[in-house]
Amino acid sequence: MSRIGAFFVVNELERAETAALCLKLKCNMKNLTGSIVSIRLFLISVLVLGSVHAFALGPNLLSQAALIVDARSGESIYAKNANTVTPIASITKLMTAMIVLDAQQSLDQTLTVDIEDLDYLKASRSRLSIGSELTRREMLQLSLMSSENRAASTLGRFYPGGLKAAVAAMNARAKSLGMSNTRYVDTTGLSPENVSTARDLVTLVQAAQTYTLIREYSTQSDQYVQIPTTGQTLHYNNSNALVKSDGWSISVQKTGFIREAGRCVVMLAQIAQRPVVMVLLDSVGKFSRLGDANRVKTWMETGEVLAIPKPKAIVKKGAKGKRGKAVIVKKRRR
User: What is the set of active-site residues?
Assistant: First the structure.
């Protein structure tokens, strides 16, 4: 074979080898691309499924019992020990307001705080001293907005037939609403024998929202009242700080606390573009019920499950350990 012929043969072999190498590289790239796409799809599925799983589990809550319900459809969105009977503290005052308004007594009648309205059970404090005079309307406002115990007690005493008749009316109304696990023994909620369930309290909130004055007074941010007998002007704030928050639209609310009940709150609020009844009971920590409410709101609006903040450690003043170092004590939730 001539030198030129040999050159052409070698050249053709090189071309064939190059083509084979390119084909092999192309196949490898195709496989690599397929692998990358598979990995991407896998990661996306993990993220999506993880989010779905987190949403299905629900929000992180400190409340021992909770129920979140769509107020329009009645659909249960989230439940936790919803049928557990537990003390409800000042959530009681929603029913107190309902039976007082049902009695259709004059809201302008002057009511007087008496010694019978003192709290001998919990020794809770009140700025309404014995002899303080306010109208029934003002007593209702302070009871719902600021959870004023002596106001709620006075409302019960001035109910037709007195306090005993008021409590009987509260239990009768609960029965008529189908709140079979609810029982009242006073108009304030100071007794731990005022009990209910998260499920029954959803019913109570839905019934309470039909009263214009309960909607108005329970969500009022603050109120000034004048005590004629002393000439004092007292300023009361809402016990639920969320009513002042721009991020919340609340139609009805009531807070509650005694040691046996823990921190409680019930609300009818607009969340994720729909009306939602939220019941949170027996939470620990002064601000935990509001933290729980915000975690529920975030979970419903974004699907994000917020973590519960850890208690901050505090340095105990004057206390020193070995080598003169300050003693750090973990702050306990109460």
Answer: 90, 93, 147
